[in-house]
Amino acid sequence: MHKEIKKVSDNIGKVIFGKEDVVEMMLVAMLAQGHILFDDVPGIGKTRLANSLACSLGVKFSRIQFTPDLQPADVTGLYFYNQKENEFSFRSGPIETNILLADEINRAVPRTQSSLLEVMEERQITVEGNTRKLEEPFLVVATQNPVELEGTFPLPEAQLDRFLFKLQVGYPSREVEFEILDKYQQEDPFYSLEPVIDKETIIELQQQVKKVKISSDMKNYITELVRATREKENVELGLSPRASLAIMRASMARALIYDRDYVIPDDIQAVFPPAAGHRILLKEQANLRGLKPERIVREVLKEIAVPVEGEE
């Protein structure tokens, strides 16, 4: 593993136990300049994950609790008349940060949810015709509870497509849960967490990701996987070209994490499930039969031939 990334992973591991795969995907998203949607039940560490990542990187962290009465201006900021200065001034919103936790994002009305679209795609906000660029690095970590559906507004497909990954933390194993009790008995280890790298290092690593080589065979493999999702009988909408680009960037980021300057099939296979599942829209009859997008993802990975070395 890349030495700088290992520092961050090990540091988060002091607080989050037994979830190395989830931490890895968070770091992939950060390096690929993507965003994450956690779709999981409360109390399993989603907020602590985002907080620990921000602390390990030494960057600014903001949290927005999404509620039905939250307005777009509460997210992006607003202009107000400053009587002292006799002019309009801009009051920044919590969006102007490095890591933004959008907690229970599906509890906000669609108008407020959509206030994140521009910032997630273009890393800028536009308020009353004035555009403000956000500071890098920038990562949105959104959460939603799949159990409590009353009073929620499902994210539209266009917004889901802006998330690089949809992840689940899941319950810990028995051994890990015992370790959590043991480590947290005296004090919360989060409060002793210190930054292990700085934001300039993260930006440099993001630039290194762009230099990772990806062969024509690997690009063709991504193309075949994506196109296969569109041709499945039970699929209404398969993966978009935006998804193809996301999978390519994520596989390049994972290659860098494992200290390689080239992509291998393992990288693509690792990032494809969390990048693909939330972008697949099933037909109504398939939904009624209980079919899940994750099954389509597994089928596609099994059906498409993996390129072997020396084919190109």
TrEMBL record:
Q: Domain named ATPase AAA-3: which ranges?
A: 35-165
**An annotated Gene Ontology molecular function:** ATP binding
Which Gene3D superfamilies does UniProt cross-reference here?
A: Magnesium chelatase subunit I, C-Terminal domain (1.10.8.80), P-loop containing nucleotide triphosphate hydrolases (3.40.50.300)
SUPFAM superfamilies with a match to the protein in the record: P-loop containing nucleoside triphosphate hydrolases
Task: Tell me which Pfam families the record gives.
Answer: AAA_3 (PF07726), AAA_lid_2 (PF17863)
Q: Looking at the record's lineage, which domain of life comes first?
A: Bacteria
Q: List the keywords (alphabetical).
A: ATP-binding, Nucleotide-binding
Q: Which InterPro entries match?
A: ATPase_AAA-3 (IPR011703), CbbQ/NirQ/NorQ/GpvN (IPR050764), ChlI/MoxR_AAA_lid (IPR041628), P-loop_NTPase (IPR027417)
The ChlI/MoxR AAA lid domain, residue ranges? 227-299
Q: Which family does it belong to?
A: Belongs to the MoxR family.
Q: What is this protein called?
A: MoxR family ATPase
